[in-house]
Fold each of these.
Amino acid sequence: MTQLTREDVLKLARLARLDLTDEEVETYRKELSAVLDYVAQLDGVDVAGLEPTSQVTGLKNVMREDKVIDYGMSPHDLLRLAPKSQDGQIKVKRMLG
Amino acid sequence: MVWPAIADIVAKVRAGELTASELVERALAAIAEKSDYQAVIAITSERARARAAAIDAAIKNGETVGPLAGVPFIAKDNFLAFGAETTAASNILKGFNAPYQATAINRLEEAGAICVAKANLDAFGHGGSTENSDFMITKNPHDITRVPGGSSGGSAAAVALDMVPFALGTDTGGSSRQPASFSGVVGFKPTYGLISRSGVVAMASSTDTIGTLTRTVDDLAVVVDVMAGKDPLDGTTIDRDVISYTDLPADVTGKKIGVIKEFMAEGVEPGVRAQIEKAVETLKAAGADVVEVSIPSIPLALAVYYIVVPAEISSNLSRYDGQRYAYSTPDAENLEESYTKTRASGFGAEAKRRIMVGTYVLSSGYYDAYYRKAQTVRTKLINEFAEAFQQVDFLVGPTAPTTAFKIGQNTDDPLHMYLADIMTVAQSLVGIPAIVVPAGMSDGLPVGLQIMAPARQDRQLLGIAKATEKLL
């Protein structure tokens, strides 16, 4: 039985940049424990001599010419998508303190 | 009113007997009339009407128009498309107007197809019922108290409700196939890499594919033929078949078909089993050589999937930080708080759950035990499917163990909800193509037969599906 603690869940939430409520912490503690229990069935599987697969196409080092594609957009059009911008740059909250 | 075959629609448009504008109005009217089903998040009527007018003008001027001229379609709302917001049915993408379009959408537009609306989904594709949409629950076209399947539930329902001749979905672990089965339409997951994912909101990059939903295999083939093939903007795309996907070898005689033993084991609803067995008997009677095939590691596929996919989700969803586009929380003191609070209020419960699972299995000390182990069992699955395809040309089985379940039935237990994917995830991990064709009803609800082929044999798969569709 995988039993995550409150601290485990809070650590994951910190890594994932999620601000969870106390209630969510308890819910995810139970649910994540159940999911991890379920996937633990792989523990005993014999995989001797097998390599992991991370992609299935068999393609390697796919290159394309490094050239500009004209999307008909200006940097200004993209900046407009940002919640806040100023002087042609994306504006964010202060990083320290 | 039922839409004619796509090839017939296009022939009439080209001949000037039907205009693209009439077709767009008809689709918009059908969408409005059936709005109670909540299949659609947004309509793109302004852009659709302008495009229809341009196509009609081109035809009047005697210009050549593409193989989908005037055909209206609905795209799942995780496709970047002009004319409406692209939200992936999530609050965190609310207000996002895509600055460019998905390659799949561009290719369809170049062929003359017209996007009229964006379909509902489980937010970011996380789910099998559309109940995880942050906005609305789509209702099953055959029973409004039931789910249409998911995550491409809005797309499947839209086709089943005759809103449009075809709809785009995505399929990462069954998200086009299972709703096709639940809603009674044709649903296709191509070989991994056959159709570009550029401009589609990423879920799990090693299994994400572009799904197509239609009423018939012939309609599906026309659409797939337009979208398939390499795209410089998606480095994982593979070469398409040199022959058109509409040129289908539609004969079952002498074809060797394997029924996957593990998919017919306990846990399959009797009504589903009966329809699948009947379909298999029909194939046999038509001259197919049917055998039982075992893929012993299939029962492990769901565990592999629910490690690999959340891992990739946690990575792909890290980009939603509230700084560069879409939703951002107004109440944050500093940048760190802006991230954590934006993501906390912008992501729904299932997205958070998967991010947390993914973060856990990728975190220091657990990577080898979970992610690496899962990717190695994935290799085992790939090898077993390869062995099976040495014995048979195609594999068949059900699409899901049940028909469409009741709205709310599985929402309290995430793990139980995941079990709805048990017959579709292995094919995604292995990367092979699979198609679902309607195979009768069980207690008034559709059952879909799933047919699978080796990787890159998509055309052969569509061929056998067409033959099967005719027989059933």
Note: Strands of chain A lie at 85-86, 89-90.
Amino acid sequence: MKLFAREKQELPIADHFKADGSRWSLKEKLLLGLSFDDYRQQLLRNPFNWLILIVFAVGLPIIAQRFLFGLGSVTHASNDYPWGLFLAFGLFGMVPLSASGFMLGTTVELFGRKDFHPIERLALLNGLLGYFFAVVYLQVDLGMPWRLPYPMFVSLGPAAVLFLVAWHVATYLSVQVAEVLPSFFEWLGWLKGKRMIRSMVLGLTVAGIILSTLHQGALGALFTYAPGKLHPLWMSANFQWIHFLTSAVFGGLSMLIVVSTFSKWFLAWRCDHHFLESLDKLTLGLAKGATFAMITYLGIKFIAIAHDKEWVYLFTGWGQYFLLELTIGVFIPMMLFAFAVRNGNARMARVAAFIGVFGVLWNRINTALISFNWHMYQEIPYWKEAVITITIFTLYLVTYRFILYRLPILYEWKGDK
Amino acid sequence: MQDKKAGQSGLVNLILLIEITAAVSIMLLGFIFQAEWARDFMIGVGMIKPMHTQVDYYSYVKGIEYLICFYFFLIFPVFFMFVNKREERMADNQP
Amino acid sequence: MLSLKTAKAAGDFDHYPDSMGVLVDVNRCVGCRSCEAACNKEQGLPEPEKPFNDYSVFDEGHEGGGHGGVGRRTDETRYTVVNKYEVPEIDHPLYRKSQCNHCLEPACLTSCFVNAYTKTPEGAVIYNPDVCVGCRTCMIACPFYVPAFKYSSAFSPRVMKCIFCYDTRLKEGRPPACVEACPQEAMTFGKRFDLLEIGRKRIRQHPDKYVNHIYGEKEAGGTAWMYLSPVEFGEVGFDVHVPHEPVINFVRDFLSIVPMVLVIWPALFAGFHLLANRKDAQHNHDDIDREGGE
């Protein structure tokens, strides 16, 4: 696509009209203004697409196997570890990384920080896709995925934490769809729809904050059901929910920096100068937020240890592992972010963001898999489980790229808005 | 024209608000003075009944709490708009 | 007539004072597996690979085996299992039966977001597969690792767990199949309240034969199935770290915050918005107020 954008003035499409004044048709917009053959050619030219193809070739049959022959055929079917990689990575990992949507929505719409506008839509899209694919992971993991709406409409168990997660993820997904729709309407040229959404943006944003606070927290609170099964250092009956919420703040901001970095590297042709020119400054702004969230997180982690009087565990192997997680996953990126902000070094902030994203994922996997059943044996997921996890993640990347190529996320639409 | 429209929706909001206020006040008064109907109502909807386990009790109270929250979500935006619209009209009259 | 006082004293619950339970005496169990066989028949479970008179199963682990002393556990083919334990104090092996303990405050019930579990007045914790979504949170929540999932099924999976023979026996006041099948009278069926008395009496009369603890009296807030043991419970496969309060107590903190966030956040953040944009509101009220709408 890079090549085509260089050759043709009117590409990439950022307007309803071609250079000669005629309107782009929907099909042309979908094909990025290329002919079908050109489009296929650019797909085949990209080695990354071949990698994707290989992943799908291996992974899709295994996903089919899961739905035809049951979870037992692709996992260890463990009754001691009822939640495996699908939830540890897909639900507990993806959701905090999607916190970017509500945070940038709050920054721009609620506090009126319009200077963050160029990256707001990317943040919203990152949120939407992260949540959507968390639900996809959940659907793979649920025993009876076709009963997904049961907790809402058929049989309600309001005292359960998962009840909250279900309701909040469902309503928040709709909120996020509404938040991303304006870019779709601009692309489509249906301005009435966009105005309609704009008129309720404050309501949507506040709803986003409420729902995010609660279900980021609720994901943590799910583990308070197993106070004796989790290692005490990863478990805090009182503060688990706020640990998860706080780490989601820097997780989401770090993820946004990572995604914007990838956009800059691989999708520069699609970004407009607003985005590219302000990116370094915005990255440092996000870094500042992330580093404050990280120091807060470290503070409340130690308060939780003090509250449950767990200092003695720090001197065991588990304690070393716990401190290693905090050092690599939180402390090092926190310091890197801090230096990056002080020295105006966006590149350093990007390095920190990659580590930060890893840190959050690592924490969630430690909580859900590694420290779970710490007094029993360690479950190592079956290879097919890992393949399915990777396949769905690849599907996520493909969807992400498909949307970024087209909708005005990384650029501003030049036509009517 | 727009002013009139804003005035109309303001009126609708006002009526809604008065209705809600009245309903809530009557309910509160009923409970404060321990009216028989208030107790009958609470028994009728299961707000007063013996519970044998804490888990059942929680399922029950959480359900009621979330229902209240749900209605709060319906009321709050109306209330917010009602309060905010007034400010707009005042600003209009200023210059 | 109910007084408002009952509603206020909501912290205390009677846990169905007449509910039934079973007292298992580890001293008396000889590991004959009759209870396993009876359960299998009563509940219509699939026939096991090894017959019930094959005692080599006591050497099996589970989940791939070999995981230091975990022993067999309940799974989709069995609601109850007996495991063997060699303890240094006693010259013969001890056997311990495990199944659902039917908690007074069931963790599975409180963690279920579709209310698939019910604690019946008779004492059983029963499960309704018709609404279950298969999220397996109950398996996370159960402090005794009891519920199992029918992983082998793609189209009709469900949770598999002992239901105290509720449908076929307990409802009519009869003891569950395993209790009836026991040749050693290792299990006593009765009102939980009476069983506690019996247990205490046995400990009092034979202090040399029992440790002074009834497992299940307080564990996880109390269970309907309780155990007596001649050795420390940790030695015969019990989890002695199970908290002595119901699992819901650990979740309560978060649950009480939820409605606060739901009701406080709207005004708090709408307020932040008004505060942050006050200046604009005066200069350019049109724009801001339109955003301020629902």
Note: Chain C touches chain B through 37 residues (CB under 8 Å).
